[in-house]
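INTERNAL TRANSFER SHEET
From: sequence group
To: structure group
Subject: PcfV

Please process the attached sequence and return the structure record in the designated field. Keep the field labels unchanged so the import script can parse them.
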Amino acid sequence: MNKFQSWLMANKNLLITSVVMCQVLVLSIGIINFPYIDDTGRQIDGNTDFARSYSRWGSEIGSWLVQGSRHLTDMGLWTHILSGFIVSVTGIIIVYSFHKKLSLLALTAAMLVGFNPWFLQNLSFRFDSPYMSLSLLFSVLPFLFWNKNKVLFLVISILSIFLMCNTYQASSGIYVVMVLALSLKQLLDNQSFIAVLKKAIVAMISYISAMFLYLIETKFNPEIATRGGMTTIASVKDIPKTILVNSQMYLSKITEQSTKLWILLFFILVIFFVLSTVLNAKVSPVKSFLYAVLFLFLGSILSYGVFLIFPEKLLLISPRYGYGFSFFCSFNYHAYFGKYF
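Return from structure group:
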């Protein structure tokens, strides 16, 4: 039995509790039985349309397997149950990746990755939600191998990121922020800067390689070209300007969509995170403070993922394109603060 399996068995009661909590939350949405946006069309004609319209072959093939057919029918609460289970597994992997200590608070923080105001829109889809949830799982799956052989981590990362793109591309910032958070954790534990940098470079190579493979895949789909700015990447010379404009829009829109209470809680989390980092790190206070600030700056922006280089401001179209920020908030807890609570 490997370490992960042993950890699962040792903490099975808490893990079962987290799965049940996820099911209660997701079923409270499912029992409304409301066909949400694309659901109406799928109920009427039964078409999957994931691959042709969105180049999401993972969702396409996944829907055939779940449905047992290439013609979709409404499966009631089953898709929501499946989505809740996937989100709970995603949270469990996050907790295990950051620290072996398990608590109900840690699991609750991990559940924010799926049960936050931005991703709740995704969970409302009766047909699409399991595959959108899978994109979360694929984004964090490689980190079970973060401390393993670099080649193994590289290969699994490329495969997982490619599958993430083929299920829901809005999750593209999750892998990046998790690399930043785990790198921060190792730096604060006084691990070699060069060793941490090498691992981050391996992750970067994995990410770029997978995105390049997915870009090639989309070139074989003529439908993508008809979707306008939603699938268009900025030209090379315009990328810096596009990143700057999208970063400002992203953080501004997230703030606008948040209540004053949420904003207050976020700043309290950030303050506790920085204080915990400076007071408990195994490196000097100056270093730990700089590392924490750099993580907060990069993580908050890069959580938007590849949409940073899209001329189309997707978050202005729909809030669900901004759920990467909730991962950033959750990782604030897990990266260092969470090891004490």
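Handover comment: The chain has one domain: 3-39+46-339. Residues 162 and 213 are 7 Å apart (CA to CA).
Transfer complete.
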